[in-house]
């Protein structure tokens, strides 16, 4: 594994830690994953800063209680940019009603500067 591959995989691991953090650990997990001026944009949200990102994560868990975000496949990256797929999985029955694909850019410290998220599968009415 190259140093760059490890850098991308570590950043994505911290990203999932933030998305799956409980309420008490959320602020710390977001700060570990994102740069202070980091942003998150998908079809449903466009926020920047740790508080905005944490609010989006909290809202997702409020809409899908008992679900966790899981990576799908491998992380692919080059030049400070990486992409990866994910699913939102029910901890009760393993169903995954939501799936997507994210592209992130990293700062020199390996923290996320930007997330551009795409939703590939969304349940009706969500």
Automatic annotation (TrEMBL):
Protein name, entry field: Nuclear transport factor 2 family protein
InterPro entries listed in its UniProt record: NTF2-like_dom_sf (IPR032710), SnoaL-like (IPR037401)
A Pfam family annotated for this UniProt entry: SnoaL_2
Domain (SnoaL-like): residue spans on this chain: 12-113
């Amino acid at each position: 594994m190259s140093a760059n591959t490890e850098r991308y995989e570590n950043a994505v691991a911290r990203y999932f830690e933030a998305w799956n953090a409980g309420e008490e650990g959320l602020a710390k997990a977001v700060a570990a994953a994102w740069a202070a001026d980091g942003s998150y944009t998908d079809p449903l949200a466009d926020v920047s800063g740790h508080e905005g990102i944490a609010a989006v994560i909290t809202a997702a868990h409020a809409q899908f209680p008992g679900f966790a975000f899981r990576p799908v496949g491998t992380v692919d990256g080059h030049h400070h940019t990486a992409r990866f797929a994910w699913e939102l999985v029910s901890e009760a029955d393993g169903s995954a009603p939501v799936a997507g694909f994210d592209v992130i850019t990293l700062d020199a410290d390996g923290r996320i500067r930007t997330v551009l998220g795409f939703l590939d599968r969304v349940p009706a009415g969500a």
